[in-house]
Design brief:
CATH class: Alpha Beta
CATH superfamily: Spore Coat Polysaccharide Biosynthesis Protein SpsA, Chain A
Strand content: 15-25%
Structural class: alpha/beta
Helix content: 25-40%
Number of domains: 1
Distance between the termini: 55 Å
Strand order of the largest sheet: 8-11-9-10-12
Order of helices and strands: EEEHEHHHEHHEEHEEEEHHEEHHH
Number of helices: 12
Bound molecules: uridine 5'-triphosphate
Shape: globular
Largest sheet: 5 strands, mixed, barrel
CATH topology: Spore Coat Polysaccharide Biosynthesis Protein SpsA, Chain A
Number of strands: 13
């Protein structure tokens, strides 16, 4: 907890790892980075950047890798495209590009030459982070709700310090997909983390409280990441480094308000498109009519009512 006269350092920097293979989305991800897959009309990376900006993040580093150059292009100004849109008076389309422009020097890229795992990807950003708390956002977890998830966490972090990870309950049969928390005392949305295990078997999992893709971390994690060897799935796991911090400094889970769509998974990705599509004022009405008319037991129904 913060003491009077000892305010927490603000969370100003975010690390966004985007170097994974995206194997679950092949063949699309053969040449399109998973983080560029659109939900309705925005790529996943844009949702992560918007959420981080809403939480007060000023500086970004994207940990990219082979085949991910489309992400860097996306955050460049597209002069030719903008000029053509301007000459054709496409005002709305020009406005749609505004969210892709970050202040010069505020977005950096570092490279994970081999996708050795999430822990290794975060470690690649160590020089950018330096000695201050930082956020990590996994763009394939799309967090949706009235208050941006990272903003909720930054607000809670001001009183807590240490490490704060987004958590949610998952079905017990799915514990082997996540980092799972050994929970301690719970106060409101904040759960004390007494231990962390990566992908435990459902029968051995200490709880069903799983870590999802938003973290506020102390830079001490880098010491452990630099020493780590491959863990579950042959990858260098962030959870394993975090587990070593438990007990050495404050460590909490935050039960965020909102919905998490796992867009690294096909069903989660489809669900995100349906929910966010329905919520869009410009599309929702027509899309709702389409879904209502759809005979879910008859695939051909789609062609009849589309
Ligand atoms: P995932 O494990 O969900 O992504 O990592 P993946 O490996 O790309 O997906 P599959 O399992 O092959 O389909 C979560 C986030 O961490 C990044 C990914 O790009 C994604 O944003 N990541 C993962 C890295 O940057 N480097 C890695 O070595 C692994």
């Amino acid at each position: 907890m913060s003491r009077p006269g000892h305010p927490m350092k603000p969370v100003r920097k975010a690390v966004i790892p985007v170097a994974g293979l995206g194997a679950r989305f092949l063949p699309a991800t053969k040449s399109v980075p998973k983080e560029m897959l659109p939900v309705v009309d925005r790529p996943l990376i844009q949702y992560a950047i918007d959420e981080a900006r809403a939480a007060g993040i000023e500086d970004f580093v994207l940990v990219t890798g082979r085949g991910k150059s489309a992400i860097e292009d996306y955050f460049d100004h597209a002069y030719e495209l903008e000029a053509v849109l301007e000459s054709r008076h496409k005002i709305q389309e020009l406005a749609a590009l505004e969210c892709t422009n970050l202040e010069a020097g505020r977005i950096m890229y570092t490279r994970q030459q081999v996708p050795l795992g999430l822990g290794h990807a975060v470690w690649c950003a160590r020089d950018f982070v330096g000695d201050e708390p930082f956020a990590v956002l996994l763009p394939d977890d799309l967090m949706h709700g009235a208050a941006p998830c990272l903003k909720q966490m930054v607000e809670a972090y001001r009183d807590l310090g240490g490490n704060l990870v987004a958590v949610m309950d998952v079905p017990r049969r799915h514990t082997d997909r996540y980092g799972i928390v050994s929970p301690g005392v719970t106060k409101g949305r904040v759960v004390e983390v007494k231990g962390l295990e990566e992908k435990p078997h459902p029968e051995e999992a200490p709880s069903t409280l799983s870590v999802v893709g938003r973290y506020i971390l102390d830079p001490a994690v880098f010491t452990h990441l630099s020493r780590l060897e491959a863990g579950a799935g042959g990858e260098i796991q962030l959870t394993d480094a975090l587990a070593k911090l438990v007990g050495t400094m404050p460590f909490y889970g935050y039960r965020f308000e909102g919905t998490r769509f796992d867009c690294g998974d096909k069903v989660g990705y489809l669900a995100a498109n349906v929910v966010l599509g329905l919520e869009r004022p410009d599309l929702g009405g027509e899309f709702r009519d389409f879904l209502k008319a759809l005979d879910l037991d008859d695939a051909k129904g789609a062609t009849r009512c589309a």
